[in-house]
Amino acid sequence: MLNKKSKFELVELPYIDVTEDPVRPELSLEFRQAYGRKIFGIKDEEGDIAAVMCFAFTHGIPKSVEEMDAMSRDAAMQAVHRAGVQGSKAIAYTVWAKKKGGGKHMVNEVYKMIKESHHIDRLITLSPLTDMARKFHLKNGAKEVQVNLTTQNFEYEVELTEWEKFRDKAKKVLRIA
């Protein structure tokens, strides 16, 4: 069976105009890049950025931006002692499309990246408490994890293949890292 090549390319972005972010425009570029946080975009066939998504990496599920900030700081500090491996949870705290359909394609490309990583076991959102965010994530295959005072969390399942499950069991039995 042939693997269909995506028409989008996931790229890490060194700069974005934060005022374009309709979800969290109050968060500075410095905040988005601190403590191992990352900004990704997807380039379309024309080479234009079709969507943007910002991530923090944590060991837990934050209920607010402030909690995510503290958790990602903690994960970054722990990473110093773990050869740079930071946080097993990828927290997507903002996403927006610059072109029609970009948001959905962004979720698909990020899902592929997370699945291929060897240290991230969950892809979770820290979404605003809006009906639009809820509908977007549920429509794109996420499951609701919890509703908080000012946010809501959704999870995109990162399911392992049977081979990956077997490999992980074998590593535990053989005590291989």
Structure commentary:
By secondary structure, the chain is an alpha+beta fold. The protein has a single domain (9-174), classed as Aminopeptidase (3-Layer(aba) Sandwich). It contains 5 helices and 8 strands, in the order βαββαβαββαββα. The protein has helices spanning 29-33, 65-79, 102-116, 131-139, 162-174; strands at residues 9-12, 38-43, 49-58, 89-97, 122-125, 127-128, 143-147, 151-156. Strands 1, 2, 3, 4, 5, 6, 7 and 8 form an 8-stranded mixed β-sheet that branches. A hairpin with a 3-residue loop joins strand 7 and strand 8. The mean pLDDT is 87.
Fold topology:
Blueprint: E1 9-12, H1 29-33, E2 38-43, E3 49-58, H2 65-79, E4 89-97, H3 102-116, E5 122-125, E6 127-128, H4 131-139, E7 143-147, E8 151-156, H5 162-174
Parallel strand pairs: 4-5
Antiparallel strand pairs: 1-2, 2-3, 3-4, 5-8, 6-8, 7-8
- Basic shape: globular
Q: Which architecture would the CATH scheme give at its second level? A: 3-Layer(aba) Sandwich
Separate helix tally: 5
Beta strands, count: 8
| Chain oligomer state | single chain
